[in-house]
Specification:
This protein is of the alpha+beta class. The chain contains 14 helices and 13 strands. Helix 2 (19-33) crosses helix 3 (35-43) and helix 6 crosses helix 9 (217-234). The termini are far apart.
Length: 328
Amino acid sequence: MNRILSASELALYQTQLTPSGKVRALLAHQWEHFPIAKSNHDALSGVREKQVVLDGLTVRVQFNSARIVSSAAKVDAKSISERKCFLCEANLPVEQRALPFGENYLMLSNPFLIFPEHLTIPHVQHTDQRILGRMGDMLALSKELSDFVVFYNGPKCGASAPDHFHFQAGNKGFVPLETELETILNQSQSVVDNQSLQIFRSKPFGANAIFILSEDPIEVERAFEKAYYHLALLSPDELEPMLNLLSWMVGDRYCLVLFPRRLHRPSQFFVEGDANILLSPASVDLAGVFITPQEKDFEKITAADLHDILSQIMVSDAVMEGLCEVFY
């Protein structure tokens, strides 16, 4: 079947057929014709949220039961081998339609959405979740979808399909990492500051991070690769260093945020009884919207819990000091 929406179909939902406008037309089409996407989109209006202050910045905790599919996903090799890949085009639901991005990606409505406008952007080929060599694609997506934040979850850092390469994207104005960028950077340590590139070391919401900003995507990609190869040396047994990435346009500048990690899931995820918290942090959580798919966790989780979870899964300050040295 032809999954690509035509220009005439898009025009039924949106007159402004800019790249972001086309995406919004795709989403509107899917909310009308793709039942599970419509159901979960409609349910967003009833999602409960509360605010928590972490290290002086306000984050949100969201109770979103639809996200149990991702938060509790089994990503071990045996489980993956026993299921069909849900990002391969041949296995997509018949109702799911798409827009192309270049020759190698499809833009799809994410049916288990967090953002009001939430995309999954898989590669057209079934290839492992590995970011090296694809940073240019991520930045090009950020430029194309200027109304969106693009993000990448590493294969052991929240990706529920570590066997199929994909990005995700969500509308701007939703995650505090983006909306509070100026405040965060004002509280950050400058590592590089010249006419073509700025790099900051920061700890938004208690999670160690590197911010890379430039009008030149090549400069961003070079800086990222320096960080990537350094982190790879620290984890030689891993196929990819553990990391989460978010990128978006700030005026004419690309902004890439790198969150280096040391653990996939915190101890609270695995324990039984009252101490259990089913929280499996990925890019959106690190950007300041923590997703709890179980109501019991939403009710009880505190700033102390979030601080402890982040301290377990993120790299130490000492690792960050060594990482920053690669940029000098």
